[in-house]
Amino acid sequence: MAQAAMSPTGIDLSGNPRRRRKETLIRRVFQAAAVVSVVVSAAIVFSLVGRAGYFLAQVDLATLIAPSDGWFPRRGSFDVMTIFAGTLLVSGIGMLVAAPLGLGAAIYLSEYARPRVRRYLKPILEILAGVPSVVLGFFAITWITPQIVERIVPGAQFFNMAAAGIAVGILITPLVAAVAEDAFRSVPQSLREASYGMGARKRSTTLNVVVPAAVSGVVASLILALSRAIGETMIVAIASGATGGSAFTLDPAAPGQTMTAAMTALAIGSDQVRGTEGTFESLYFIGLLLFLITLALNVISDRFVRRVRQKY
Amino acid sequence: METVTTDSPRNVHIDMGARKPNARPSGEPVFEVADLAVYYGPFRAIRDVSMSIAQHQITALIGPSGCGKTTMLRCFNRMNDLIETARVEGSVRYHGADLYDKRVDPVEVRRRIGMVFQKPNPFPKSIYDNIAFGPKVAGFKGDLDDVVEESLQKAALWDEVRNRLKESAMGLSGGQQQRLCIARCIAVRPDVILMDEPCSALDPIATGRIEDLMQNLKDEFTIVVVTHNMQQAARVSDMTAFFTAEVNEEQDRRTGVLVEYDKTEQMFTNPSDERTENYVTGRFG
Amino acid sequence: MAIAAKGPRTSDVVAQQLRGRSTDVKGIIFQAALLFALLLSLLILLVLIADVARGGLGVFQERGGEFLRGRLTVVSPTTAGVGQGIVGSLLLLIFVVLMAFPVGVAAAIYLEEYASDTRFNRFIDVNIRNLAGVPSIVYGLLGLVIFVQVLAPLTGGKTVMAGGLTLAILVLPIVIITSMEALRAVPDSIREAGFGVGATRWEVIRSHVLPAAAPGILTGTVLSISRAIGETAPLLVVGATTGLLATGGRGFFESFREGYTALPVVVFRWTSLPNEDFRALTSAAIIVLLIMTLSANAIAIILRNRYERKW
Ligand SMILES: Nc1ncnc2c1ncn2[C@@H]1O[C@H](COP(=O)(O)OP(=O)(O)OP(=O)(O)O)[C@@H](O)[C@H]1O
Ligand SMILES: [Mg+2]
Fold this sequence. Notes:
The complex is a heterotrimer. Helix content of chain A is 70%, strand content 1%. Chain A is mainly α. Chain A has 2 domains: 17-58; 62-308, Orthogonal Bundle (MetI-like fold), CATH 1.10.3720.10. Chain A has a two-stranded antiparallel ribbon. In chain A, strand 1 and strand 2 (77-78) form a beta hairpin. The longest helix of chain A is centred in the first third of the chain and has 42 residues, at 17-58. Chain A is flat, with a radius of gyration of 26 Å. By secondary structure, chain B is of the alpha/beta class. Helices cover 31% and strands 26% of the residues of chain B. Chain B has helices at residues 69-75, 106-112, 127-137, 144-154, 158-161, 174-186, 204-217, 230-236, 264-269, 274-280; strands at residues 29-40, 43-54, 58-62, 86-94, 97-98, 113-116, 192-196, 222-226, 239-248, 253-263. In chain B, the strands form 2 sheets. In chain B, strands 6-7-8-3-9-10 form a 6-stranded mixed β-sheet, sandwiched between helices. A 4-stranded antiparallel β-sheet of chain B has the order 2-1-4-5, with helices on one face. The radius of gyration of chain B is 19 Å and the shape is globular. By secondary structure, chain C is an all-alpha fold. In chain C, 73% of the residues lie in helices and 0% in strands. Chain C has 13 helices and no strands. In chain C, helix 4 runs antiparallel to helix 10 (201-230). Chain C starts with 9 loop residues before the first helix and ends with a helix. The interface between A and B is medium-sized, with 14 and 16 residues. Magnesium ion (MG) binds next to helix 1 of chain B.
């Protein structure tokens, strides 16, 4: 066996060693690039966990859940429920806006629009997706609050969670539409034809065949959008008040603090006075919570996406 | 070497009929296959194949769909390495050298043993670049223009494309594309050309041209061709191997076996196995 | 449903029935509602642009190019401008393009072309998908700890370099995912053709797979550039407001280790000022920002439509 690469007739199949070495080297370089992503994840966890732990060691854990105190890091009141409530309220309003708009647009593009029409309509959503969130934040206070919120709730405050929620909804609409449209389009044509073959109309085919078949993708799009809404920062920091602190409130017409807005306030030090020990580190604590929540949502949404792929 | 050890004993005795010594082709063997089995994951696609393939002859692999012809063909130039789940057992010797030895570089193997695929697959580049790519990566130092012209001439395509070498290969007709793929293969001066149903995507006239071409190329190259078309096998080949798929009760899947391997004339006029006879006379498959 | 006997000719009756109920009202309403959902997005986009234009175009009429060169200031609206913001954003983009693009494409090539289906490689794949969903402000915290603090000797603290590296890491997953999709769209028959003439994997990738995937990869890169231009939150965390870009006198490379600001950060700073004059400036800055991001998005869309290839 020793000379197996060299045949009795003198044929050498071992190839060019330099070419082989180069190939191995290139492969290693690419592999290293892929491993960078793992390093990034490790760095995120490293950055968050240590300081969040330091924060938890500094504060009285009982104060973490005390809605009567609100979220006022400078005073040492770290009621997490306050900023959770704000986050849920804002992203909830966002979902109320984005779910019908995004899903409606997705169904139209996938089921009704002719290819040529689709080619021109779809970029609308893609352009909307390119609007930076800081711009939507500005839009929320200059247009959404006066033109929409104050008309529905006269006497709403200048900074309010409703306007922030609507702007967040606009931000995530393209995401809902894109993921859901993919799901609708991956429903095999044969299913639609089967329905038409039984004399069904377009509307009932869409509602009774296409949407149920793509339900996993629809759920995935909504969960993904919720995750994006929860992590959205600039809109809420601008429109619902990055004033540093907030009392517990569920009033959409009032300013309120979300997790991300609270983080921004801490980061840019609009809360200038140095608070108690660990005040700044609360930033990492919320960051860790935010990271875990969005991670969980992304994992769940990925499950649903995969279910669609498996089916078809 | 016994290759069935991983399977239940039930499979061992079914196939003995297929293992009778097959006729050896005359001439020096290019390939000697012994007890070959190929697995895709747990699924065994072919088993117990032993045959040898002679130099400067055209060997046809025929058999019903799914019997493992493509799988077999891809063993000859280690194309199976590219399929992650594929695993090869047994031995394939090329001029006496074990193709699956650890020290063998599959890239070098494919340089010597070229391949033409079922669907014409030119690179989306110019005709010239399609042909020049192989020699370039193989470190060819001479005049590429000459190689391009010579390869196209051998592939009987030169006259049709000599004035449009810089144009995209995607603009050629299907038959021209397939001849371009043959020219691309010839350009690296291989020893063997493997063809997997090279005419299945072509019309009868284009098919005829490729068959003629194969006859001309045979003086210079050893050709192994998979075909579904028995007339084609009968027309072009010197040797014919008939594969079929046997039901494997254990896995409820079908495993390919080599039923009979002989001179083409013999296979089509006086086959010794009943299954071959049924197949070539059109009663089965 | 039975065919009406006698009287009218059968063909008329059938034709009548084939036409169905004269109008499918519910169907039409349904379709109109869907179209409305889509067009509402367009309407919002138009209102947004109109709102910003109304507020900001006056600034350009009055001050023109001087606004584009002006400094970031929060006290004097008559001299404030976006000059430093634009320069800062462009400097940040250098890092995004030079770091995220090569690393991202290389990682995508590894995962699509080389990686076998091992547990570790699957982990990398899932990991990248999850990284794409991490909120941008969390990347800011990563940048604050790693680039501003741990690597301070290299970056110099809250500098362009720290901000640029943070943004590069932020868009890395997007570059990887879109590049992977572009590579996956290249048919295997092209790879087989390359291997079939005795090319190595890298030779096949370089000569055939990458050129075929290039438009898709480019589209993804342009999109990630658009994203990087608009990102604000992580830059606030890594300190884009604290320092101001020094002008003149210093070398190009030294400027990477200095304080900076970026266009979206300028927008944010001015937005939070109560002064009415700054409202107009904010709108004007947003116009500049939108021109940058939306034109990047438009380029990406055009690229994609032009090179959408059917194999
Ligand atoms: N990549 C693969 N992974 C798993 N199974 C495969 C793979 N390629 C082929 N097979 C299986 O191996 C068996 C033989 O396939 P192969 O393609 O070799 O048949 P064939 O004789 O070439 O058929 P055809 O005439 O239709 O081309 C089939 O059952 C097929 O399903
Ligand atoms: Mg085949």
